[in-house]
């Protein structure tokens, strides 16, 4: 009973209308595609950005902090003692490791 009910509900969703999609389709002229323009021209039309020197400095500092965190995460996950303990446990149970 449940699979049939689920199938009916799935089929009914195909009958639903989505106003956002219909509005977008009505606003588009058939066969017309937008022109591709260089990014530099768009940026020149936009004018000066809202970011001032303080905002840029804050963003640079944040980026530097994220790079430092990423650098700290590189390297071995476990220290030497933990790696040795794990290696000994693996050696003790070779059948579990396919050996």
Automatic annotation (TrEMBL):
Report the PROSITE patterns cross-referenced here: PROKAR_LIPOPROTEIN (PS51257)
Query: Could you tell me the superkingdom of the organism this chain comes from?
Result: Bacteria
Name by which UniProt lists this protein: Uncharacterized protein
- Organism listed in the record: Pseudorhodobacter antarcticus
Q: What is the lineage of its organism?
A: Bacteria, Pseudomonadati, Pseudomonadota, Alphaproteobacteria, Rhodobacterales
């Amino acid at each position: 009973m449940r699979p049939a009910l689920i199938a009916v509900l799935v089929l009914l969703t195909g009958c639903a209308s989505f106003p956002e999609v219909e509005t977008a389709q009505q606003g588009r002229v058939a066969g017309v595609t937008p022109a591709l323009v260089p990014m530099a021209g768009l940026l020149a039309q936009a004018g000066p950005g809202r970011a001032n020197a303080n905002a840029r400095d804050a963003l640079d500092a944040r980026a530097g902090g994220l790079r430092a965190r990423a650098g700290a995460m590189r390297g071995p996950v476990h220290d030497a003692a933990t790696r040795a303990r794990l290696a000994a446990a693996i050696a003790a149970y070779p059948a579990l490791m396919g050996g």
